Amino acid sequence: RADTSAVRAVSVLWALWQWSKVQLRAYRDVAPLAGLAFAWWRRYAAERQLREGHFMEQCTFLMVNVEGLRKDVATRVSVPTLFSRTLRELTFHNAQMAKIINEAAARTTKRWPFLSLRSEGWLVMANINAHILEVCSSWGHAAAFCGQEVEIVEVIYALVNDRTTTSRRQLRVYLVPASQLRALPPEDELDLRRGSRRSAYTILQKMAALYTPPPTDEHTLADNGVTSGLSSGMGRTWLVVPKAAGAAACSASAPSPVGAGLAIQSAL
Fold it and tell me: Which region, left, alpha or beta, applies to residue 233 given φ > 0 means left and ψ of -120 to 50 means alpha?
């Protein structure tokens, strides 16, 4: 019986080997054609996305200086690009979070470009806040740590799938000081001839309509979180910047520990 079982097992293995050889020969004949077809499809898909201006898994961070949009300002950068991140970098290589952002971006429209992130919104906004602080506030935090005078500026930001641009649609994070968002000037006072300026102002108008400033008499940094009281797709952060030399000259001999404490608190 043992010999019979061994012979049967060898026969089965031999049959599997013969079948595998046939499959390998077939794959060898088809593989070059399949590879060419896949390469053509990838190239066609990329060209189609470029031609139609689809979201390219890139996020650009833009700071809007409302005062620079005014007509009476001769030369001032009004919508500077701060930095860019790929979607993987933006989510710290979290595939599930990248999927949530992609799905939210697909639900946006030209009339309403804000990403509706639902219950996961706070985590996405916290990740965006981490990138903003790393790039824009690291030097301020270092100055505060060393005992230098600093200023803390409240900034409101929004994650949008910008469909107003003529070149391509892509994720953008618009940042604007809260003080400017609260007193947004009317359109007739601004120079909006350039498309980037008009797109930025359109986003700011929608942000201003959604933004309700907290009560000033009871407002402190500790009372408001990144998304407290804000609509989905919007966040809040505090940029820490060293004071100008002239403003800090009077207190240069005795750096204030209060500024350092607030800066470190905002970083945490």
Answer: left
